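FW: tagging you since you asked about this chain on Friday. Here's the raw sequence from the shared folder, copied in full. Didn't touch anything.
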Amino acid sequence: MAKIGINIATGSLQQAEMIVGIDLGTTNSLVAIIHPETKMPIALKEHGTSSLVPSIVHFDEYGNASVGEVAKQYLESEPQNTIFSAKRLMGKSYNDVKNNANFFTYKVIDDNTDSLVKVQVGNQFYSPIELSSFILKELKQRAEHILKTPVTKAVITVPAYFNDAQRQATRDAGKLAGLDVLRIVNEPTAASLAYGLGLRMDEEKTIAVYDLGGGTFDVSILRITNGIFEVLSTNGDTYLGGDDFDRLIIQHWLKEKGMTEEGLHSNKQLAQTLRLIAEEAKKQLSTQEVFEMNNPLFATDNSQQTYDLRLTTYDFNALIQPLVDKTITSCVNALKDAALTTADIDTIVMVGGSTRVPAVKNAVSAFFGKPVNDTVNPDEVVALGAAVQADILAGNNKDFLLLDITPLSLGLETMGGLMDVLIPRNSKIPTKVGRQYTTYVDGQGSMRISVFQGERDLVKDNRKLAEFNLTNIPGMPAGLPKVEVNFLINADGILVVTAKELRSGVQQSIEVKPQYGLTDKQVEQMLMDSITHAKDDIQIRALVEARTEGEQILVVTEKFLTKNTTLITKEEMLATAQAMQALQLALTMEDKNLIHTKTEELNEITRPFAERAMDEAISSAMKGQNILG
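HL: got it, structure written out here
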């Protein structure tokens, strides 16, 4: 089969270039390549060390970051400065994660909005994108050190259920780490490629990928036809993984000692120490019948107590059985969604370190009625598959069809002149993506839709392709209109942009030729600029977003004060006015951390009387109502 020729401007690469495959995991991350001589995928590691880099970032008192094993040692001693499982926060708002906020031993900011979540360490505020970029930078440096060559291009994997915002956040993290992210690949697709599935053009297979990592679980049903992977269904739980096995062990031990989990909340150090011992117990019980640790010493309530910790495989299996059953229920649901039965599944691929637990392996095998495929190291399988995909993109796998792709990202201008990417560069075409927007001003009757092409965070640094006004939006309060913007690129590379206000049905569209008038050289220059200016761009974007958020909170607070003067004491009014003034002043500065701090302070002051107003509204709404019990 002929390969469609694609030049460097549109995403394919010269053979001499080294492209790495990266598995950016919740618990561990790693980097892999295709070995130039054996042509087999291998995970990169220093002699005598592990290929796994713990996905942990520690900040010292000066704000310097360390990553991996070095950072891991601070989990117990400095839990508030040591960030783990940042992947769980990617593309999420606080409202998305608030039910699991207790899981994190560091400060996740509750700004009570739908804006993207932030993590506070000292007086610094970090986005999950920045935190992930520290891990990616570590992987990049590790690869460069081992390969003795610069590494600037990568394929990065994400869970199949990651939405558009989470995929874009992963791309941004790569860019900030100095990597040109050529493709975002679904983890189950990568795992399949590592097993050689989908590499033969005449192959037709339906496979289940069971992925149980440290923090997340998902099962995906894939159909592979002529080298094309289609995700038929995906199911799982983003808060179920090996960490939860560890937690059950901890609860078991605490129960034996007459302690509760609540007691651990006040002692983060003890919580982390127990977490690490429980993890060790779980690993040992995969190969032996009993785990015993004599007299580990913990300080609790200023007294020193000695514990004997013991666990048998039998007890461990009984503890985790409900969670294993939960994963099997997900398998049932995934098959149901794909309209298939276990008999339709040709292969079951096992991914993630937690699949080493014999009880897990046995349960999955029993459910599907056939042995599971786990010959490739489950910790490395996703990264190895990413390396296979990278090799295909490099044009080294001559049997593989390379589909045409978009050379540069396409997006819209949003508040503050920011570029909101809808179709990232290297997306296969034809493709269609939609996203919803709303108004910022009460009664706003029109919305300007400005379409841009490029890789920079501010639209002024990108290339404007088209602009039109969506008019006749019915007058509604800010935030109420729902405007859905769709980008559709057809097989000829023509972009059709459609904007529709969903409540009223008002609609308008425009045709754009995205690649018109750009030479290969200009495309390459735009890509280079995006990498060179990544750090500045992310800082400017963070500042603009902080300002936009601060301005919105000032407007909302002012409206609230005017409406609810009777509910607020003189002292509260004075404190609020001072906090508003401080935020107003911070907005004029070039310091996003200061703006976040002042926004957070205003939130803290207004939260109590906002709750009072809510109670008041509910009680007056209930007056005279008949409630059915």
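FW: The chain has a mean pLDDT of 83.
HL: agreed, and The longest strand covers residues 228-237.
FW: great, closing this out.
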